[in-house]
Amino acid sequence: MRSAPVLMILASLLFASMGVCVKLASAYYPAGEIVFYRGLTGTLLLAALTRWRGGTLRTNVPSMHFWRSLTGVSALCLWFYSIGNLPLATSMTLNYMSSVWMTLFLIGGAAVLGTARVDGRLIATVLCGFIGVGLILRPTIAENQLWHGLIGLLSGVVSATAYLQVSALGKAGEPESRIVFYFSLGGVLAGALSMLWNGVHAHTWTGAALLLAVGLLATTAQLLMTRAYSTGKTLVNASLQYLGIAFSFAYGVLIFSDPVTWMALAGMVLIVGAGLAALRLRQESPPQRDISVLPES
Fold first, then answer.
1. Lowest-pLDDT range of 24-28, 142-146, 160-164
2. What angle do the packed helices 234-241 and 243-256 form, to 10 degrees?
3. Is the model's pLDDT at 170 over the cut of 90?
4. What pLDDT score does 13 carry?
5. Which ranges constitute the DSSP H helices of the chain?
């Protein structure tokens, strides 16, 4: 059996590869349609996997799955839209701001409820994350892509709420495969509604192959990452997860000729550092150890 770090590196590479396919598929389909086929592939694969393992997809908490799927699929649509309009590494990094957003939510909740003293170090990590966002968005402003940058940033905000709901589902005893199945099913429903609104685009062999690749890469990566988090150390896995940004940066430069700016690179470093620091500090607080960091892709 492969070790958790190897699984994590493979998952990060597959997620970055999925981002490449999403960006290429954006030339043929809108974000909602890509989400539909990504969800359809995941739903079929997970249903078959659950049946093969002798498990069940029946759940006692359908309302929790509904809200988790609503936020998760919304984040996915926003992220896919940003991937199609921004440099690949920029979109990936803005989505990975979710760890910093979760920390901000926890700080706000503690301050409002007065349940715990707010750690100044957590506030510092949030500030570093926002400085990183400012550096990353600066080049997008220069390229008149501020709107797309804000959409990418919003995808991270919504992802953070979905992660908290995944944690709640885990506490309710729901297995990861069932959570991912209903998330994928939500993508199918949301994508179908978008296709009813925007119409169904004609397929080409290239477009169909890209859609299939998005679904297969995303589902495989998610299963590998779930296995890595269930068998390995959370902080090590989270550190390796950020390799997805490095892989995306390499893909963007080599395949899409994305520009390389010192501001964007510095912003990525700050966001990665802030995310890892926030995770380490949250682990020091027992009530917050079970927060999931699995991606929505």
1. 142-146
2. 10
3. no
4. 94
5. 4-25, 31-52, 62-85, 88-95, 98-113, 120-142, 146-171, 176-198, 205-231, 234-241, 243-256, 262-283
DSSP per-residue string spanning 159-186: HHHHHHHHHHHHHTT--HHHHHHHHHHH
| Lookup: tokens for 89 | 């590494």
Closest CA to 83 of 48, 34, 126, 139: 34
Torsion angle, CA of 274/276/281/284, rounded to 10 degrees? 180
Provide the residue type at 294 as one letter. L
Instruction: Please check whether residue 169 is in contact with residue 114, taking contact to mean a CB–CB distance below 8 angstroms.
Output: no
**DSSP secondary-structure letter at 96?**
T
Three-class SS of residue 71?
helix
The tokens describing 225, both together, are 């990452």
Top pLDDT among 99 and 50 is at 50
CA distance 244 to 16: 5
Q: Is 200 left (phi over 0), alpha (psi -120 to 50) or beta?
A: beta
In terms of pLDDT, which residue wins out, 229 or 210?
Answer: 210
* Cα gap 37→187, rounded to integer Å: 8
Q: Which residue has the higher pLDDT, 1 or 138?
A: 138
Going by C-alpha positions, the residue among 72, 88, 77, 39 that lies closest to residue 159 is 72
User: DSSP assignment, residue 117?
Assistant: P
Percent of the chain topping pLDDT 90: 35
Contact 129, 270 (CB under 8 A): yes
Per residue in 155-178, is it b (16+ CB within 10 Å) or e — as a string?
bbbbbbbbbbbbbbbbeeebbbbb
Q: Is the pTM of this model over 0.90?
A: no
